[in-house]
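User: I'm putting together a small comparison set for a docking exercise, and I want a reference complex before I start. The sequence is below, and the ligand is nicotinamide-adenine-dinucleotide. Could you produce the 3D structure with the ligand included, as structure tokens?
Assistant: Of course. I'll restate your input first, then give the structure tokens for the complex.
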Amino acid sequence: MTTKVAIVGAGGMLDYHAEGFRHAGAEIVAIADVDESAARKAASQHGIEKAFGSVEAMLAGADFDAASMIVPNKFHAPLAIEFLNAGKHVFCEKPPAINASEVEQMIVAATSADKVLMFNFNNRARPESYAMMEFVENGRVGTINSAQAKWIRRTGIPGFGGWFTTKALSGGGPLIDLLHMVDLAMYLMGYPEPAHVLGQTFNDFIEDKQFKGPWGIPDNADGINDVETAAHGFVTFKTGQVLSLQVSWAEMVKREEVSVVFQGTRAGGKIERLFGSDGLDDTAIDTCELYFQEGGKSISQKIEVDECPDMGRARSAANFIRAIEGTEAPLNTPAQALSLMRVIDAIYESARSKQPVTI
Ligand SMILES: NC(=O)c1ccc[n+]([C@@H]2O[C@H](COP(=O)([O-])OP(=O)(O)OC[C@H]3O[C@@H](n4cnc5c(N)ncnc54)[C@H](O)[C@@H]3O)[C@@H](O)[C@H]2O)c1
């Protein structure tokens, strides 16, 4: 039986969700956006039969099994809960919500509806991540003692005064927006339970137009800019593993870098994307390597994988459909999303209180 999907939000990620859902054999039957004209335009561009100006109208007027949320972060939890309560599976863009307590409420709704709840941690669906996870699972890496996660930009503020820079709508700046590498590091480490977190955030350049990224949403001159532009943190886990992290939209770094580096008991490794000066995916340089000792030599082994400019976005959406249909294991679980959001909440709390935080 074909899985029928509805989409909420005609945002930038729609292309990838649509590509992935269709690639997995699903049918996209409806789209809703509070801006009804945006929903209509997206419906005609993507060959989607029905367009609605509200989710309530879509729930009443379309028949579907699953829904994907491509809306500003503040609406992730309330909309996901509304769809789960209506008996739909939910695929939600990252971040899972604006804080951990909202994720807890989403999990309650998913459990009582007995429906799949997944998040778009698309970097787990990159070929590099599949390859590295295989080395982790087959014992080649050993235990990952320590990892360093980075998504750093020199000039990457996604528009001034819009929802991204308004804490009440986004939950925060790059710490919550660029959470992918923290997630990927914790994923490779086996999602250990966090113990303690120490962090600091900075908001330099949050009003400085020189630091605007080449994508994002239009500026709003009367809007709010009250989120951080950079965050640094250190996480210890109950297992004894440790993770350091650096994320920024605007920070004095050489170039945009997206990476996880780790040190295992048998091998270390790196998954890295370095962006070109235009900051766009197509000009990026990808590296995937394993580091180990063999025959008295230090080996750095290049791991060859297919190119994946979209950073796993379509593959991640396809995995949601296959997870619903039971043909693939889900790439992420609600419990992992909750653990990640607890770490993020704790970094904000540590920055606020200037104290280490126990989770
Ligand atoms: N996984 C990734 O690589 C990636 C990349 C970019 C953005 N995102 C995520 O996608 C989400 C959307 O980001 P965006 O850049 O597309 O935002 P956007 O502002 O461009 O688009 C969001 C759309 O949602 C609509 N909308 C807003 N509130 C709504 C509501 N309550 N109900 C229905 N529609 C509503 C808006 O009218 C707009 O058309 C965010 O959570 C963001 O973090 C993920």
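The chain has a mean pLDDT of 96. Residues 8-13, 32-35, 38, 55, 70-73, 75, 93-94, 120, 122, 177, 217, 313 surround nicotinamide-adenine-dinucleotide (CB under 6 Å).
User: Thanks, that's exactly what I needed.
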